[in-house]
Design goal:
The structure is a single chain. It is built from 18 helices and 16 strands. The strands form four sheets. The protein has an eight-stranded parallel beta barrel with strand order 1-2-3-4-5-6-7-8, surrounded by nine helices. Strands 11-12-13 form a three-stranded antiparallel sheet, with helices on one face. Strands 14-15-16 form a three-stranded antiparallel sheet. A hairpin with a 7-residue loop joins strand 11 and strand 12. Helix 1 packs antiparallel against helix 11, helix 9 runs parallel beside helix 10 and helix 15 packs across helix 17.
């Protein structure tokens, strides 16, 4: 079916270089096992090529290709990366080319210089010699039955400097039988309009299919990749989450849905597109990096709505503020609650948490007002949905804590050069009984966690199935120095799920206690402890508590 702009939908081959170019990014380091795990996920997702590394450069990549040879890949072609032969070696003597052949990879991506500046200044050879290196190297690999993808390095800078020479490099690879000519914006500084013009000009001068390899130094890698396709490229190279050297490569998690959902090209099987967001998160986890919330399509915030007007409209018709259905890329809609929230935010968030607010419509103004007050004080419910749920259920009488803090004491000591020792003793009223216990920990928060866990274990033995997996502290009023107000965010989890809770105070222990006890309460609520309720002072209607916030939430006492 023809599109309105006249561009016919095409099949675009997707070349993933996360394991090679992506690993060159700062703070990115993959083990061989990491690379194999990612390669399996990429293969399941449906990319056409997985560039595993440069076997001529390091033992890790050699090991990857050795192990990859014994794997049955269902869709992707494992690809090795390397350079054209050195000027002082024949193709038979060049160790890089020999490593490419020995890798056993069915496809090889080989780069050659297309910018005279690099030929004369970096390589120090004659322009004609460089063309010979390209042609002989490609021809040699074709003799071994390899699919050869020629990466025309620095092509766009070279074309702007000397279009005839840049084109002659492509034609040398084409004469030798290259299967794909990939135009590389290696420095990442070419503008989108230049990409479109140059690709269109090159397209009519070569017979071999064209591809694009864009870097993001100008923030245009995705736009440049799309413009290249719109002007004739049928092969796109990039990385998951845009990982890569300097500012990274074109982010395939953005390129693929744009090409497939907006331009109607075929990149991967439609059903696999729903695996995109999980793939993005998986690569971030393996790379030991935090996925950027703002990533298009796959980020946590890509379909998050905070403003009350937005939420109200989205609840009526999602098209009002969403350009696609989040489920198409494996993501989900999120409604945030904050000081910008209105009734629509609270209702939508409550529905998301399976809280029925139908019988409590008259309490909505008080709930909204309380959220605004707490957010003003530093609480952040958009990042602590567990505490949000507790707040709603308490204010509507749907939940009462099964335990009540009577007090705790923290002791910390350090003798000379020995490690510090911290102990917490705690008294809880649990189901009408006073439980008094103590525990040591690596620090006051760890000791507090252990003491609370120990105090509850007699009444709720499966409390040990819950674990704390993340603890963050943020200073909210830095000008006050060590007296600054802090926000503590705690992430807890079982094998089945995880949740976040929040606490705020000038006292880091109090803030930690608030977040910690909320976390335990969420666990008990999910495990059905609601029938063991204590008498908690009632909440006054109208948006304010009868007691102070800290007294109501946790009856925290300093000792």
């Amino acid at each position: 079916m023809a599109q309105e702009d006249g561009l016919m939908p095409a099949t675009i081959s997707i070349f993933d270089t996360t394991l090679r170019d992506g690993s060159q990014g700062e703070d990115v380091a993959f083990s061989v096992d990491d690379k194999l795990r990612i390669a399996h996920r990429l293969d399941d997702f449906g990319v056409d090529y997985i560039e595993g590394g440069w076997p001529g450069s390091n033992p890790k990549d050699i090991a990857f290709f050795e192990r990859a040879r014994s794997v049955e890949w269902h869709h992707a072609t494992i690809t090795a990366f390397g350079a054209t032969r050195r000027a002082d070696r024949t193709v038979e003597e060049d160790p890089n080319l020999q490593a490419l052949v020995k890798s056993g990879a069915a496809a090889v991506a080989i780069f050659g210089k297309c910018w005279l500046l690099h030929v004369t200044d970096a390589l120090g050879i004659l322009p004609e010699t460089n063309l010979t290196l390209i042609e002989e190297s490609v021809a040699y690999l074709k003799q071994y039955g390899r699919e050869v993808i020629f990466d025309a390095e620095h092509f766009f800078d070279g074309y702007k400097d000397n279009p005839d020479y840049a084109l002659s490099a492509l034609l040398a690879a084409q004469r030798a039988g290259a299967d794909m000519l990939v135009l590389c914006d290696t420095n990442g500084g070419t503008l989108t309009s230049e990409i479109a013009r140059i690709v269109a000009a090159v397209k009519i001068q070569v017979d071999t299919p064209l591809g694009i390899h864009a870097h993001n130094d100008g923030g245009l890698a995705v736009a440049n990749s799309i413009a290249a396709v719109e002007n004739g490229c049928v092969h796109v190279q990039g990385t998951i989450n845009g990982l890569g050297e300097r500012c990274g490569n074109a982010d395939l998690c953005t390129v693929i849905p744009n090409l497939q959902l907006k331009l109607h090209h075929h990149c991967i099987d439609s059903a696999n597109l729903e695996r995109l967001a999980p793939l993005s998160r998986f690569v971030s986890e393996v790379a030991n990096m935090t996925q950027a919330s703002s990533l298009p399509y796959v980020g946590k915030s890509a379909f998050a709505h905070k403003g009350g007007v937005h939420v109200s409209a989205v609840r009526k018709n999602a098209l009002t503020y969403e350009h696609i259905r989040p489920e198409q890329v494996g993501n989900m809609r999120r409604v945030l609650v904050s000081d910008l929230s209105g009734r629509a935010n609270v209702l939508a968030k409550a529905e998301e948490r399976c809280i029925d607010l139908g019988p409590y419509q008259d309490q909505l103004p008080a709930i909204v007002n309380r959220i605004k007050v707490l957010e003003h004080d530093g609480y952040q419910f958009e990042a602590a949905e567990g505490s949000f749920e507790l707040l709603i259920r308490k204010m509507t009488g749907q939940w009462t804590e099964p335990y009540h803090l009577e007090g705790f004491r923290v002791m910390a000591e350090k003798d000379g050069d020995t490690n510090p020792r911290t102990e917490v003793s705690i008294r809880l009223n649990v189901c009408g009984e006073t439980e008094h216990t103590a525990s040591e920990g690596m620090g006051p928060v760890h000791a507090l966690d252990q003491a609370l866990r120990k105090a509850l274990a007699r009444f709720y033995p499966d409390i040990d199935t819950m674990r704390l997996i993340d603890y963050k502290v943020r200073v909210l009023t830095g000008k006050a120095g060590t007296r600054s107000r802090v926000r503590v965010l705690i992430t807890s989890a079982t094998e089945e799920e995880q949740w976040c809770t929040v606490g705020v105070s000038e006292n880091i222990l109090e803030a930690s206690w608030q977040a910690l006890t909320d976390s335990f309460s969420i666990f008990l609520m999910k495990r059905g402890a609601a029938d063991m309720r204590l008498t908690i002072p009632p909440i006054t209607q109208g948006g304010d508590y009868a007691e102070t916030d800290s007294d109501f939430r946790h009856n925290f006492t300093r000792r």
